[in-house]
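Please fill in the sequence for the structure shown.

STRUCTURE ENCODING:
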């Protein structure tokens, strides 16, 4: 199934208050877009646009059947609950997945009004949700962009912290070997390698590392102690930067507590980043 997925399109933080979440990410040194509303879905977002991926801060504006799963997440807490997987044809992928025995919903097309600094339009997408059994420990869906120029705009891609893109995502599990069969079925045989140290799941671009709580603590040090026990398994988001010292300077200027690791990576605890560790690492 490797031809169906091109990597991680974006990571999704489900939050209770979009303005508060946007302010938190602005303090981390990100440029955050204005409010976008998903037509007919009852949800809205604020975005952090990176090189070829992004971070979505997602909130429920009007409760309905579509966004009930998001509200269920918020009954536990805010956090990095979902990953959108990039696909050049989400509808065709849905058919192929179901034919292969991978449970997937019918594709959903939707739009979002967008106003860039130089244009107005309707950003258009196609989404295929994957059943939770197909993506253990992480909620995932396929996303196809029909209007990428309305989403990735240069005015939104420059950041005080020097962010370039998503480096990797860390998912905490009791047994890193357990999800292997499901993810090999989704991404292709040999995509998933298991071990307590967190060998990555190859997604096509950015890796996902499935690690034990102990391995998370070894990698992220003191900031891992702030990870909520009842939070989403997606526990950390690493951001590629050209210079980690620039990210540290932005955090210091904005009064955000952070830790600088021995190798130079800069880390922010979940309490200051809407429920997940955020790391800035040169790469």
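FILLED IN BY: designer on duty
SEQUENCE:
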């Amino acid at each position: 199934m490797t031809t169906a997925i091109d990597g991680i399109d974006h990571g999704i933080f489900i939050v209770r208050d979009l303005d508060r979440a946007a302010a938190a990410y602005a303090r981390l040194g990100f440029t955050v877009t204005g409010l976008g509303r998903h037509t007919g879905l009852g949800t809205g977002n604020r975005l952090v646009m990176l090189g070829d991926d992004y971070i979505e801060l997602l909130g429920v504006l009007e409760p309905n059947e579509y966004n009930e799963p998001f509200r269920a997440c918020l009954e536990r807490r805010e956090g990095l609950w979902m990953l959108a997987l990039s696909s050049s044809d989400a509808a065709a992928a849905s058919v192929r997945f179901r034919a292969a025995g991978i449970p997937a919903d019918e594709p959903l097309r939707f739009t979002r009004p967008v106003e860039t600094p130089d244009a107005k339009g309707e950003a258009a997408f196609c989404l295929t949700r994957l059943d939770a059994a197909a993506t253990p420990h992480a909620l995932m869906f396929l996303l196809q962009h029909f209007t990428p120029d309305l989403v990735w705009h240069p005015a939104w891609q420059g950041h005080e912290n020097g962010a370039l893109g998503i480096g990797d995502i860390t998912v905490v599990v009791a047994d890193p070997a357990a999800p292997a069969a499901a993810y090999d079925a989704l991404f292709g045989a040999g995509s998933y390698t298991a071990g307590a140290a967190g060998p990555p799941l190859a997604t096509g671009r950015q890796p996902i590392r499935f690690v034990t709580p102990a391995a998370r603590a070894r990698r992220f040090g003191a900031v891992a102690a702030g990870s909520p026990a009842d939070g989403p398994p997606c526990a950390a988001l690493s951001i590629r930067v050209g210079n980690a010292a620039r990210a540290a300077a932005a955090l210091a200027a904005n009064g955000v507590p952070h830790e600088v690791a021995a190798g130079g990576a800069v880390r922010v605890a979940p309490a200051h980043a809407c429920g997940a560790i955020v790391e800035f690492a040169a790469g």
